[in-house]
Amino acid sequence: MDFHILTLLPEMVENALETSVLGRAVEEGIIRINAVNIRDFSAEKHHKVDDYPYGGGAGMLMQAQPVYDAWKSITDRTGKDVRCIYMTPQGRVFSQQMAKEFALEEELIFLCGRYEGVDERVLEEIVTDEVSIGDYVLTGGELPAMVMIDAISRMIPGVLHNEESAEGDSFGDGLLEYPQYSRPEIWNGKAVPKILLSGDHAKVDAWRREQSLIRTADRRPDLLESAHVSPKEKAFIENYLANKKDR
Ligand code: ADE
Fold first, then answer.
1. Of the CATH numbers 3.30.870.10, 1.20.1560.10, 3.40.1280.10, 3.40.50.150, which one belongs to the domain with range 2-163?
2. Catalytically annotated residues
3. Percent of the chain residues topping a pLDDT of 70
């Protein structure tokens, strides 16, 4: 998968995405990170990329021309049907499901805004998807793009090695992940749940599934509506919540 990132801060993106698991995926040739500096495409002699908004108001806007030409430098090679994702708090809120869908693409373009935003006309011209990473405002689109690229990359076959498998992830089947424990068996006076030491894989699996159901019911009950839960599991949750109320 080729990730093209249109940004005024290419080093920020390159440094962060070329370490750890994603760095290894880059080395293995499974993903490529192509950070494109929008400033390199400014037609202005001082390489200016921003200007005042018409109608007044605070701050500066990114101008249409450098953004468009930076985008065109990519699509001249790839064709114009590559999805171009604009990072904005006004977009659809990013989710695990969206990460899985974007992971099916061969190339993606991310447009990262800075300043107060981007001239609307170039957004109309090039953007296919507007995505937000949550209801808060950041100083630019770079961190959101990195968040998306990290979540998407994990869904690409070969990026995670066996020991890091995405199986059992929170949200995998719409539920939160069960709690996990490592050595020692007793730490700070707290023992690991006995069932995990039993060696009985069927029992361990059943316990973990129950813990996922309980966690989701406690912490994110909103997820249960669209989670993959059997009628028997639904009854288990209702029973758990009824008992909890009594306590
Ligand atoms: N740019 C600034 N804030 C953002 C957010 N929450 N999501 C995506 N892009 C952004």
1. 3.40.1280.10
2. 89, 116, 154, 169
3. 100
Distances (CA, A) of 132 to 33, 95, 117, 127, 129: 21, 10, 14, 14, 10
Half-sphere exposure for 129 (CA within 13 Å, toward CB): 19
79 alpha carbon – ligand 1 mean position (Å): 27
Query: Which residue's alpha carbon is at the smallest distance from atom 4 of ligand 1?
Result: 89
The residue nearest atom 10 of ligand 1, judged by CA position, is 88
Q: Is the pLDDT of residue 164 over 90?
A: no
- CATH 3.60.40.10 corresponds to the domain 186-246: no
d(CA 143, CA 146): 5
Q: Would you say the CB of residue 141 lies under 6 angstroms from ligand 1? A: yes
- Tell me which of 37-41, 68-72, 112-116, 191-195 is least confident: 112-116
pLDDT of residue 169: 85
Q: Given ligand 1 and candidates 87, 90, 127, 129, which is best to mutate, with the most ligand atoms within 8 Å of its CB?
A: 87
